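Dear support,

Our group has been running a series of protein-ligand predictions, and this particular one with pyridoxal-5'-phosphate is the one our PI (initials K.S.) wants archived with full inputs and outputs. We had some confusion internally about which version of the output was final, so please treat the block below as the authoritative record. The input we submitted was:
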Amino acid sequence: MIYLDHNSTTRALPEVIEAMAPWLAERWGNPSSVYGFGRSARRAVEDARSAVAMLVGARDEQVIFTASATEATNAALHSAVCGAPSRRHIVTSQVEHSATLSYCEYLERYHGVEVTRVPVSSQGEIDLDQLDSSIRTDTAIVSLIWANNETGVIWPADQLGEICRSKHVPLHLDAVQAVGRIPVDFEKCGAAYISLSGHKLGTPKGIGCLVVSDPCRFVPLIFGGKQERGHRGGTESVPLVAGFGRAAELLIASGLDCWKRVATVRDEFESYLVASVVGVEINGGGSMRLPNTSNVYLPGVDSDALVIYLDQQGICISSGSACMESAIAPSHVVDAMWHSHDRACESARISLGRDSAKEEVQELVRLIKLFCEINL
Ligand code: PLP
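Confirmed final output from the archive:
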């Protein structure tokens, strides 16, 4: 198998699985128990919290573990809206992950919250003046994606933070695709919240976290026991939390240098493809992008059919967001950039991992070319 869908999920690292194993097997105590068997589990949770906090330049107490980045994102929006009942407006963008878009729809539908979805340019960039003018005196939160999961386009977090700070409105940044690939410093970016997902960073699925600038003012989404210092009810999954901590340590140790090579492989892929298939364009290619992501427009090619064909050849890529489970919906991100349903249906995402090789993308280009020759 050639796996080129790392923005969807990536392999759990052997070191992470190893770090999780004792907490799955013999050390199964409850981290809230007072006896030693529980206290050692608590220590594992707190060590992991420190590692994740260090990864993103936050303080330990600012990290709240969740079951996913989706939950973390929901929790950020929930906290901001509940914490400021007189503010009934949210600003987001048209190119967010469904974690943000769906929760905004829920707030609109069931809680009468007004939502402004800022459009983007054809290169996937957000207009900072338009963002600025969308923020109102009753805006409870601005929620934006730091690095887009479909195109890899990176937004200037510091400037987004600056705008929101000047308007005294909290900013949530969906940092799921940014963390581990570009420098992420919670303190510096000026966000009030960032959300992270473990399974993009080398843990199994089922763990994420929300980093909160002012935990004292955080309004929980999930109520129950007083876990996570009262910020999220429910017994922590010690194995997954410990795995998240180990993944964070490994990322801190390895740094970001490996992505330089990956960016070269990605750029070579795009050059080969443009040279091999007539009319190919790179969605967001003119913008600052993640080093591993390529979103290609193949005029006249049904990207879902391409994905199925490549799957039969042993290659995994995606045509939209993998989180749009079973819905063969064209990319809302490409649609928002180009206002073209056809272009959205004819675009595919390739996302490389740390170890993706030149030979793999060469094989991908060969097969895309073949598919185009057969189908066009
Ligand atoms: N935000 C972005 C940008 C993502 O890419 C994803 C997952 O694909 C999520 C949020 C949701 O993450 P999780 O799977 O942990 O809920």
